[in-house]
Amino acid sequence: MQMSSRARRLAVAVGMAIGVAAIAVGPALADASTPTANLSGGFSSILAPGSIGKTVYLSINGNAALSMTFKGVTVQIDVSGLAGVATVTPQTSACTTAGTLITCDAANFKTTTFVGTSQSIYPYLGQEAIPLTVAPVAGASAGASGNVTVDVSGSGAVNPGSSTGSISLADGPDLAVVGGDPNVATSVSATAGSSYNHSLKFTNVGDQAAQGVTVEINSGGYGVDIPETRKGCEYAAPYEAYCYIPVLVAPGATETLSPSLQVLTTTDLMWGGVQVTVVPGYACLPANTVGTGKAFALVDSTGASQVPVTGQTSQTNIDYPDNSLGLKLTVSATTADIAAQLSMFPFSGNDEYLVSAGLTNDGSGYVNLGQSANYELTGDFTVPSGVSVVSVPADWIPVVSGAPDYSATGQPGYAEPEESGPGSECPSWGCGRRSGVAYPSRVSFPGKSKNARRAGVRAEARGFEPRMGLRPKPH
Questions:
Q1: Could you say which DSSP state residue 220 is in?
Q2: How many CB atoms lie within 10 A of CB 335?
Q3: Which of 137, 194, 408, 414 is most open to solvent, judged by the fewest CB atoms within 10 Å of its CB?
Q4: What pLDDT does residue 453 have?
């Protein structure tokens, strides 16, 4: 049996959102001559020739120095490079088309998420999406491709952005989940210590039939369990399941999974995530247990009878990630209380100290960092001018004037995890009540003002989740 690629589109939990480095004079904020924000956007897609086309989402990203609202955002999409390959049609009245140029008024959107550190120039993120219909040109063949250019601009002190994507044609099944932007998890309300059900619908927008369908379900970790209740499913309990449904899904067919997907929540869950991916053909888990009970079925939107397939055929979806659905389960009744922690101990006789910085959760809610739909939590660790960094964890990098600089270890700057995103000094998989881990680094305090410099060492927790208290703790 051939294993699937087990592609994951889960948010990667960062195990450390606090860095250690020497800082010259504090936060590296933009001056009056520096634009306070950056805009960017773009998209790419793969289509099957002769297919019905599909929805893609043009993602617009804005990074800013402060929490702000981007105003007067305009997006221009140049599709002249797609002649003879594909068409692009906006699904919103905010866009107008003139020849090969599509102009969209993205209006205003806020930077609602903190993704950097207080030392970064542009630590705040805002996102918007414009739905577009892309379809192959009649008569175009597999192998054809073209480019599409996207320019994003806004009013005020904002850097515009430009990118070039591509649309290409390929033969094969192309399963696409119906409803929502596949690049952004859908927030849903759940109850702790209970079950959550969600309907799954998808369409084969390819030009070849799917020889059966495998539904891959992944909760990623503690807080959300997948019950082993379905025949035809392989389980890596309790966080993963591959469910094979041996029926033919023809091009253009829309199917609904029956019954709905079900997951179980723990009593202390605050938020957690589920990723569902639909792939054509048969895919299996390398190590698994086989479920029992009634198997999943597919219900055709036209009411047509299903055609069973025999054997186990491996196939590849021609395009990603629109065959995936991300869910963020939020339990409003639970809360967390995240605090920064910091300790320093003499390390050697050379004015070196071992510094442990981190975050701890003193609340009742479990924070499943890797499954958060947004960047919910981060932290800063700063040291004053004159302090040298001797060593840091391997995945930290120094940040100088808000930008990563791999050559600056030990020099004035700022260090944070190599991957910015959800994370804390709690274990990378999550943070339960009164749990937390601190990773050590070594710093040196040369000179006569050692005590003053020690007093300037500071750790701070940051976040955007209103139910998660955040408390700084200076040394």
A1: -
A2: 15
A3: 194
A4: 52
Residue 21 has pLDDT above 50, yes or no: no
Where does residue 59 rank: exposed (0-12), middle (13-18), buried (19+ CB within 10 A)? middle
Structure-token pair, residue 19: 């860095």
| CA pair distance 463, 225, nearest whole angstrom | 26
Other residues' Cβ atoms within 10 Å of the Cβ of residue 260:
12
DSSP label of 455: H
pLDDT top residue among 169 and 399: 169
* Selected residue with higher pLDDT from 272 and 231: 231
How many other CB atoms are found less than 10 A from the CB of residue 454?
A: 17
Cβ neighbors of 226 (< 8 A, separation 6 or more) are 217, 219, 235, 237, 238, 239, 240, 241, 263, 264
pLDDT tens digits along 324-358: 999 988 888 888 777 777 777 777 766 777 777 66
Q: Tell me if 57 sits within 8 A of 182, measured CB to CB.
A: yes
pLDDT per residue as tens digits for the range 38-67: 999 999 999 999 998 999 999 999 988 778
Check pLDDT > 90 for residue 240: yes
> The domain spanning residue 360 has which CATH number?
2.60.40
> 459 is in which domain, residue-wise?
336-474
Among candidate residues 374, 354, 349, the one with its CA nearest the CA of residue 271 = 374
**pLDDT band, very low/low/confident/very high, at 458 (cuts 50, 70, 90):** low
- Least Cα distance to 459 among 474, 443, 449 occurs for 474
What letters, b where the CB count within 10 A reaches 16 and e where it falls short, cover 153-167? bbeeebbebeeebbb
According to DSSP, the residues that pair with 280 across neighbouring strands are: 213
Residue 470 vs residues 340, 455, 464: alpha-carbon distances, Å: 8, 21, 9
Q: Which residues contact 98 (CB under 8 A, 6 or more apart)?
A: none
pLDDT of residue 345: 75
Three-state secondary-structure class, residue 36 = coil
| Number of domains within the chain | 1
Average pLDDT, the chain: 76
The tokens describing 243, both together, are 């469910």
Residue pointed to by tokens 């591509």: 166
**Closest C-alpha among 386, 387, 340 to residue 359:** 340
With beta carbons less than 8 A apart as the criterion, state whether 115 and 397 touch.
Answer: no
Is 371 strand, coil or helix? helix
φ, ψ (nearest 5 deg) of residue 11:
-65, 135
Query: Does a structural domain hold residue 424?
Result: yes
The pLDDT, as a whole number, for residue 414 is: 38
Nearest Cα neighbor of 230 from 308, 152, 295 is: 295
- 381 assigned to some structural domain: yes
Percent helix, strand, coil in the chain, to 5, is 5, 50, 50
Name the token pair of 101.
């140029």
Q: Would residue 212 count as lying in a domain?
A: no
